[in-house]
């Protein structure tokens, strides 16, 4: 039997074509034993695919830049995996640039990419401090397809993939109040990011809907520096006006809080109830287990990449106003109820 | 006062030059208040630096490729931060490629980079299955400086930055045995990686030095797929020959084990004592807190980048045999002693 194709291979193995394709591409999603079965049959029929490698050799310009603030944050690491899940299957090459939360670096990267050979960009912005003129300018100079995800330039006409931050923060805050919190606080980023603004809106609306008064000092602007953050939170939890509930809008803010509470012997959830935006697998294993709002990070990456490839391959920008909204997931654990 | 330079600025502020430089570059390492002070004085003297952005505009080919298996693993995320700490200060641009543990993808990336404009590479390998001929070939074709870190091609003549995996695994295993373990097991990667081999050597030597017999079934080959891993570990902990100690050589293997033990109500540390290779900030906050061997990931990245830039800027490859060995840190927590 000569000239066997992947569909025939899959049929004989009783596997899906996508599984066979991934097994032949040595994907980390496929078990070693499945890979072995697939490769043995492929060898038997002298089927030599490796479409990824061979296309990569041939291709020109099938390159996508991913610009994100940070990879130590698990949200972005998982989103990149989602993006590459799509781009690898379509033989696009991706490279990742980190802005380290620096607006200047973000601007410099864009200038640098203007002369590059990329065919599109997927971006999560570093700041909102000065607006987003640099993205608009980049687009006018290059006409390259761009998709934003999570941290998006809300007022610009680009396709965006976001999650329902307003609603999910509203729900989480309502749960804190229902569990007895009278003075919950919100751990915020320092930057005027759209994601953060939406979450603050949700927090405020939940207070208001429960008849609680909102005051500015309920918004605590955290630092990305864990040590600075630790000191600032320590001060808050040593003060007389100690909060009885926390919504932490960023993964590491909740970790800093846990460290402070452990060291000050503040009991979670008795003394303070906690819900955090979080994508860590360890959330359920913390002591006490952390109640979380999880963003669908992997899927957000997938959707962003799918949208971008559509724009690149159809050479049309009709999708420019698309906004895809995915749902966050609220999981209540011990940090809310012992 | 015209023509003030950064040294004078730093002096007047009572800060180090590097702090001023980072503050002007909007580094995430510097506090908002320090940035404000620096920028105000810089404005007063009309000092307009932003060397990173302006050099990036001018420069050609100051680009470094980072090739790593994965960024969801915190070790690699922190190592990238260490690399970029050095490259940003020297105005090099970096892009990150993920192999997702695929040897084929790694080979394809190298072929792709042969025609690129990069001036050097920092690499942590995806596998050791077929040896490392593709790296040697790449070097012969391009003569580009390359530095390997952590997962290194042990037999090739390239500069390497590693950590003392043999010694630290020996020490950790000795602690398991001292705490009473008679049948510890080792959670291993499936690939014949040098890092993993060194750790296994350390594990075996510690057993032997304590007069315990080593058997092949003490090495449990884990999967990178968390669900597969969960099932495999569950089976082991439901078997009669349940291990009484675990050394987990990869971050997520210990997380899978915690999940299994929680679900099977196997008590850590009473029923099984655990030490894991780990760089997660949450290790100390888990229930029970996890004893860890931490690699100096950030510093390994820094050393690798420093070595690479030296090679690039001196245009000499005299450093080709350099091996820098940093020390891992063993931290004993509740998972060993309640």
Structure description:
2 copies of one chain form a homodimer. With 338 residues, chain A is an alpha/beta fold. Chain A folds into 3 domains: 6-49, no CATH class; 62-162 and 297-326, Rossmann fold, CATH 3.40.50.2300; 165-295, 3-Layer(aba) Sandwich (Rossmann fold). The first copy, chain A, is 44% helix and 15% strand. Chain A is built from 12 helices and 12 strands. Chain A has helices at 6-13, 17-24, 32-44, 51-58, 74-89, 103-113, 133-142, 165-178, 194-209, 226-238, 251-264, 297-314, and strands spanning 63-68, 93-98, 120-123, 146-149, 160-163, 184-188, 219-221, 245-248, 273-277, 291-294, 323-326, 329-331. In chain A, the strands form 2 sheets. The first copy, chain A, has a 6-stranded parallel beta sheet with strand order 2-1-3-4-5-11, covered by helices on one side. Chain A has a 6-stranded mixed beta sheet with strand order 7-6-8-9-10-12. In chain A, helix 11 (251-264) links the parallel strand 8 (245-248) and strand 9. In chain A, helix 1 (6-13) crosses helix 2 (17-24) and helix 5 (74-89) runs parallel beside helix 12 (297-314). The N and C termini of chain A lie far apart (64 Å). Chains A and B meet through helix 4, helix 5, strand 2, helix 6 and helix 11 of A and helix 4, helix 5, strand 2, helix 6 and helix 11 of B.
């Amino acid at each position: 039997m000569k000239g066997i194709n992947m569909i025939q291979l899959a049929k004989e193995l009783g596997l899906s074509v996508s599984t066979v394709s991934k097994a032949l591409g040595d994907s980390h999603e496929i078990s070693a034993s499945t890979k072995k079965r697939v490769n043995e049959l492929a060898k038997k029929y002298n089927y030599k695919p490796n479409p990824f490698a061979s296309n990569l050799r041939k291709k020109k310009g099938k390159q996508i830049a991913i610009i994100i603030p940070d990879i130590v944050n698990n949200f972005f690491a998982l989103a990149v995996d989602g993006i590459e899940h799509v781009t690898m299957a379509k033989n696009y090459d991706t490279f990742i640039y980190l802005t380290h939360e620096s607006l200047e670096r973000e601007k410099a990267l864009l200038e640098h990419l203007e002369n590059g050979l990329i065919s599109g960009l997927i971006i999560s912005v570093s700041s909102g401090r000065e607006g987003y003129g640099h993205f608009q300018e980049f687009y006018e100079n290059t006409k390259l397809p761009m998709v934003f995800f999570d941290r998006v330039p809300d007022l610009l006409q680009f396709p965006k993939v976001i999650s329902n931050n307003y609603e999910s923060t509203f729900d989480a805050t309502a749960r804190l109040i229902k569990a007895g919190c009278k003075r919950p606080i919100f751990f915020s980023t320092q930057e005027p990011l759209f994601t953060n603004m939406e979450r603050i809106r949700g927090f405020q609306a939940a207070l208001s809907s429960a008849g609680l008064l909102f005051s500015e000092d309920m918004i605590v602007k955290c630092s990305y520096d864990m040590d600075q953050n630790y000191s600032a939170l320590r001060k808050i939890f040593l003060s007389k006006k100690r909060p009885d509930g926390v919504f932490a809008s960023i993964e590491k803010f909740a970790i800093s809080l846990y460290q402070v509470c452990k060291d000050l012997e503040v009991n979670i959830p008795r003394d303070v109830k906690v819900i955090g935006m979080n994508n860590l697998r360890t959330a359920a294993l913390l002591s006490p287990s952390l109640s979380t709002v999880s963003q669908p990070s992997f899927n957000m990456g997938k959707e962003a990449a799918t949208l971008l490839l559509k724009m690149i391959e159809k050479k049309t920008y009709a999708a420019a106003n698309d906004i895809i909204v995915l749902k966050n997931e609220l999981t209540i654990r011990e940090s809310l109820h012992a």
